[in-house]
Design brief:
Blueprint (H helix, E strand, L loop, with lengths): L9 E2 L4 E3 L6 H25 L4 H4 L1 H15 L9 H19 L5 H8 L8 E2 L4
Parallel strand pairs: 2-3
Antiparallel strand pairs: 1-2
Helix pairs in contact: 1-4, 3-4
Length: 128
């Protein structure tokens, strides 16, 4: 049995993109996902720096996700046709999942030390 994988593009930690991505779909989608993920983390970090508890700092994300669940259970999907909303949903779920991986007392330090909030700029790597 053979396994074959094709990649349209790959984006590296430094923002460089290799691959055709001829319609710029990979770059645009991943860039939007990173931006909304950083927005969620920024809100959490700002709340923690303002003296809120970890639970309070993540409450906006938990409320957002609970609203999505309510919409899904009622048979009214919450704007999934809009790609920007899709990434907002995905990013919120990923940030909430990140929170559950760590003990609550460690979260503020981990956020300050490991979460990148500077804009993530995607650029095409020049062929050598």
């Amino acid at each position: 049995m053979d396994l074959q994988i094709e990649l349209d593009a790959a984006i590296f930690d430094d923002g460089s993109l290799i691959g055709p991505d001829e319609q710029n779909v990979v770059a645009e989608n991943f860039g939007e996902y990173v931006r909304v993920t950083q927005d969620w983390y920024q809100g959490v970090i700002d709340a923690l720096h303002a003296g809120r508890s970890v639970e309070e700092a993540f409450s906006a994300i938990e409320q957002f996700l609970a609203e999505i669940v309510r919409h899904l259970r009622s048979g009214r999907p919450p704007g999934r046709e809009n790609p920007l909303e899709r990434w907002k949903h995905q990013a919120a779920a990923d940030v909430a999942r990140w929170r559950r991986k760590y003990p609550e007392p460690e979260i503020p330090k981990l956020l300050d030390q490991h979460i990148r909030l500077e804009p993530f700029v995607i650029h095409r790597r020049q062929a050598k």
